[in-house]
Amino acid sequence: MKINTATFIISNSDVSKCPAEKTPEYAFIGRSNVGKSSLINMLTNHKKLAKISGRPGKTQLINHFKINDKWFLVDLPGYGYAKVSKTIKKAFQSFIKDYFLQREQLVCTFVLVDSRHEPQKIDLEFMEFLGENGIPFCIIFTKADKLGSSMLNKNITKYKKGILKSWESVPTHFITSSESEMGKEDVLNFIGKINIDVADNFK
Ligand code: GTP
Ligand code: MG
């Protein structure tokens, strides 16, 4: 799938204020600094559409980006970010949770995990939360450029084994790099297929 237009629409911390239109959307979630905003920029061929930073905690709101005037990419704050105050952390977590539980337009969630890391408790718990609530998700391994190909394969294999301790099968997954654009076509084509599959539900 080709991206022709990508436009920032709105940021907010309240799911009830997200765009009301009946349009399929795809959310990017994961720990702070994992590369959610960078991946949105890479997929949409922009450098500054979503705000990125080397310091965790950059994205603090629910951000809707309209793609090809047909569907949304949604950039979210990282979960489990420890360096903000407890009160802010609670507020983050509560609106992120509300977003997932209430957003009817959400057709697929991408849970981003760093290719270099072993399965982390917070990611596994979040996937469990999605599973328990019947929210479809895929895994996106990020920052693949930071590893050589054999380390990368070794880590992904290990990660999949970890996932199989709590899941019967490994969810659909993609290996990406926002630096090298690895995985770009695969993720976009996947979204393109879902858009076709769900088109009838959004008429
Ligand atoms: P929060 O908004 O804080 O939750 O973070 P985020 O998940 O949106 O991460 P962001 O895209 O802001 O990227 C965090 C840092 O990782 C930035 O310094 C990026 O340049 C870097 N980064 C993101 N993706 C990649 C990648 O694929 N390769 C490399 N080498 N660096 C990356
Ligand atoms: Mg971000």
Explain what you see:
The protein has 203 residues and is an alpha/beta fold. It has one domain (6-198): P-loop containing nucleotide triphosphate hydrolases (Rossmann fold, 3-Layer(aba) Sandwich), CATH 3.40.50.300. Helix content is 33%, strand content 21%. The chain has helices spanning 36-44, 86-102, 121-132, 149-163, 184-198; strands spanning 6-12, 25-30, 62-67, 71-75, 106-114, 137-142, 173-175. A 7-stranded mixed beta sheet has the order 1-3-4-2-5-6-7, with helices on both faces. Helix 3 (121-132) links the parallel strand 5 (106-114) and strand 6 (137-142). The model has no long low-confidence stretch (mean pLDDT 93).
CATH architecture: 3-Layer(aba) Sandwich
**What is the strand arrangement across the widest sheet?**
1-3-4-2-5-6-7
Roughly how much helix do the residues carry, as a percent range? Answer: 25-40%
Structural class: alpha/beta
Biggest sheet details? 7 strands, mixed
Strand content range? 15-25%
The N- to C-terminal Cα distance equals 21 Å
Number of strands: 7
Q: What is the H/E string? A: EEHEEHEHEHEH
Small molecules (ligands, ions, cofactors) in the structure: guanosine-5'-triphosphate, magnesium ion
For the record, the count of structural domains works out to: 1
**Over the alpha carbons, how many angstroms does the gyration radius reach?**
16 Å
Q: Look at the structure and name the CATH superfamily.
A: P-loop containing nucleotide triphosphate hydrolases
CATH topology: Rossmann fold
Tell me the number of helical segments per DSSP (H or I, 4 or more residues long). 5
Mean pLDDT: 93
The poorly predicted ranges are: none
Shape: globular
Assign the CATH class: Alpha Beta
